[in-house]
Amino acid sequence: MILTLIFSLLTPQSNTVFKKIERAFLQNNASQLYLLFPSGNHINLSFPEPISFSDQLTDQQAYFLFQKIFSNYPTFEFYSLSEERELQNDNTIFKSRWSFKDKNNNNQYVYHVFFLLKKSEKTGKKKPEKWKIIEIKAARI
Prior knowledge:
Blueprint: H1 2-10, H2 14-26, H3 30-34, E1 43-47, E2 53-57, H4 59-72, E3 75-80, E4 91-101, E5 108-119, E6 131-140
Parallel strand pairs: 1-6
Antiparallel strand pairs: 1-2, 3-4, 4-5, 5-6
């Protein structure tokens, strides 16, 4: 038990944001992702077919996009391909694997999804998370 406590104190703060991203995708929950978007800045998003989207959005626009994505493409599985200790100064990349179903035709798809995370100096009451998602890019496997 003491070793677990020591290990949890030594692991970087990024692992909690990794788990929050995983939980948001597994629960198809755009609200949980929204808390990780930076306020007042744009987020770069790029997804291949069948989602076929690439643009810069505000945090609120990204929230509505993910609501639509999760309602049309529910998650089958989502897991991290990154090591928990992959911290690089004030930026880190979280690599994951996401499989989902297209509700329109029941086809299944698998993506590698890359999240560029930046440590935020500003945290607010609505979005207290220290790490913010500033870019999401997906590649079809």
